[in-house]
Amino acid sequence: MAQVLPNPYRIVEGWAQLPIGRPMGAVGKVAIDPDGRHVWAIVRCDRLEDPARFGDECRDSKTDPIIKFSPEGKVVKSFGGGMFIWPHGLDVDRDGNVWVTDAVAENRTPKGDKRGQVVVKFSPEGKVLMTLGAPGQSGSGPDHFTSPSDVVVAPSGDVFVADGHNDNGNNRVVKVSKDGKFIKAWGKGGWAPGEFHALHAIAIDSRGRIFVGDRGNNRIQIFDQEGKSLTIPWTQFGKPSGIAFDSKDQVYVADSESDDVQNPGWEEGIRIGDAKTGWINAFILYPWGDPRQTAGDGAEFVAIDRDGNIYGGEPRPKRLQKYIRVRP
Predict the structure, then answer these.
(1) Which of 103, 139, 180, 261 is buried deepest, with most CB atoms within 10 A?
(2) What domains does the chain contain, in order, with CATH numbers?
(3) Coil, strand, or helix at residue 31?
(4) pLDDT tens digits, residue range 285-316?
């Protein structure tokens, strides 16, 4: 469907500035620091021009993929070099700890490599505090993940993991206690309510509801923290790759995949709406999008700072964009 909606934002060109000599890699998940101003992002390790390497960009690199940016877009901290094959999801909890998923596919993990299939908790300074999952080992049991896409930490400290990125993966949400103990999981592969098809994003709104970006099914599913479905799936946000909320209960959904094949009639971009009603009130059309292309483009991940500025992580274009509001 065509979106005839206002776009009150404009791009701040060249906001993210990496150190001299480091090219911008594929940008993964973006999140805001507890101070509301600094921006955390996954910037994968090397600018690889070979499309076949998309999916394991950090495999042979010691470059830090976890980066903290100042409000001016300068790097103030980085860590995680050599620890991941394909860092993907990220969340920053209320204490400033940084949680990162490694969503590498099984067939891209070198034999014997003890990386991937994990969620790692770091201190704000980059010290490893906890690892969830079995490094280098995929699985569907309580202590394993298969290509975990994303992670979010509730105010209680409970951890929710979107597991996993691939169509034939676990397709479930895993709930873990703050000390790393498995609590429960829900979901399986499929199209019915409560089932998933390559879930890609997970987020928590101000009421504690779990929003899951069920990207392969072109919908958002909403649950309580025990896995009970709370409403019919929302299909008005396109193919949801990333989900975030602001302090005014607005939901921001990044759609990087809509095209004439995967979601005919829809366009890539960031849709903004009311988190309570689901009513969309603005749409940032991805300006370089081409619905005839099926590789996936534009922002896959989205975050909003305390001033209402939007940050979009674009993996394939290799950009971290900042958007500022210029109209009411």
Answers:
(1) 103
(2) 9-325 (2.120.10.30)
(3) strand
(4) 988 777 777 666 789 999 999 999 999 999 98
